[in-house]
């Protein structure tokens, strides 16, 4: 078989393979994911079921506990924060949710753009439903851009005020992102095809190698692979793997709306922090350095020897830095 025939066969093969079964049963997920699911609830937000966790401070000695709101990134879920939840609860209340298309939330195939503006709409609607009026907001990865979209609306309509803002390891400056191969493939015109290949041929495991590349250089290998397996399992749940090309649409929003978000950041009037890992392969240190020049009064903290998923790699250190705002 010549090389052209191999290419043609590879292109056509997915069209003739049956769809892989979609896991809709939480009880078939890894035990850790089931435990996380039991801590939260599904609520209808703008016509879709959104998974959220809202817990009150566990320390009775804390008077008028603050609220921490956590915003997750791509391609993961609120589970990113499972190692730091108990520690945060000793300091205050904690709220987090899975964006639509991620984790345990609904993953619509049609009539949903998966834009950052939609994600911001649903963040605000979710916070309003749970009565969150004031919070220390901590974002990560894609969540950084969702938060900047929310901040850009701050003087027009906000259901939640901010005690402080903390950005961590997000591609907030589009031209400075070190895109992974998987990101480039999924965000290209061939994205729908690659989503189909992933779901039918099991190539979503290739995505695991992409995630490995953004962990810190000295990470515990077994622990890293365990976390990546959970991220992958929660992507597969409810057919999320089939819509990866839709989920990554947010990258185009970053390129298109940066000017609006940067303007909002230059006018911010609450404490702002950029906490960044020095060994992040996808969102390098050049990104927070870029913001030094025009975000008034912002504090910049560098995390040594950590990668993109700082809260998973060094949860104790993450907790100390995040709660240092109190």
From TrEMBL:
GO terms for molecular function: hydrolase activity. Residues 68-318 form the AB hydrolase-1 domain. The keyword NADP does not apply. Residues 1-18 form the signal peptide. This is AB hydrolase-1 domain-containing protein. Pfam families: Abhydrolase_6. It comes from the Eukaryota. Belongs to the AB hydrolase superfamily. Keywords: Signal. The keyword Ubl conjugation does not apply. InterPro entries: AB_hydrolase_1, AB_hydrolase_fold, AB_hydrolase_sf, Epox_hydrolase-like.
């Amino acid at each position: 078989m010549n090389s052209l025939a191999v290419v043609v066969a590879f292109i056509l093969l997915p069209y003739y393979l049956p769809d892989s079964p979609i896991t809709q049963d939480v009880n078939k997920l890894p035990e850790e994911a089931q435990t996380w699911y039991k801590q939260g609830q599904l609520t209808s937000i703008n016509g879709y079921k959104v998974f959220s966790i809202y817990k009150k401070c566990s320390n009775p000695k804390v008077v008028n506990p603050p609220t921490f709101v956590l915003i997750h990134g791509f391609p993961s879920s609120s589970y990113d924060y499972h190692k730091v939840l108990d520690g945060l609860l000793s300091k205050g209340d904690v709220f987090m949710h899975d964006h639509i298309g991620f984790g345990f939330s609904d993953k619509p195939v049609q009539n949903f753009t998966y834009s950052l503006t939609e994600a911001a709409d649903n963040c605000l609607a979710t916070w309003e439903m749970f009565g969150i009026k004031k919070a220390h907001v901590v974002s990560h990865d894609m969540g950084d851009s969702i938060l900047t979209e929310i901040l850009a609306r701050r003087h027009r309509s906000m259901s939640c005020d901010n005690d402080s803002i903390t950005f961590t390891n997000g591609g907030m400056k589009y031209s400075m992102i070190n895109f992974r191969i998987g990101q480039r493939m999924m965000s290209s015109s061939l994205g729908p095809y690659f989503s189909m290949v992933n779901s039918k041929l099991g190539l979503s495991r290739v995505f695991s190698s992409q995630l490995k590349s953004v962990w810190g250089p000295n990470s515990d290998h077994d622990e890293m692979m365990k976390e990546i397996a959970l991220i992958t399992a929660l992507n597969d749940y409810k057919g999320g793997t089939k819509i990866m090309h839709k989920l990554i649409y947010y990258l185009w929003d970053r390129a298109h709306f940066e000017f609006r978000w940067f303007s909002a950041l230059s006018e911010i009037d609450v404490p702002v922090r950029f906490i960044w890992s020095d060994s992040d392969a996808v969102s390098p240190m050049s990104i927070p350095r870029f913001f030094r020049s025009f975000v008034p009064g912002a504090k910049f903290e560098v995390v040594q020897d950590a990668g993109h998923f700082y809260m998973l790699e060094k949860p104790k250190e993450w907790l100390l830095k995040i709660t240092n705002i109190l």
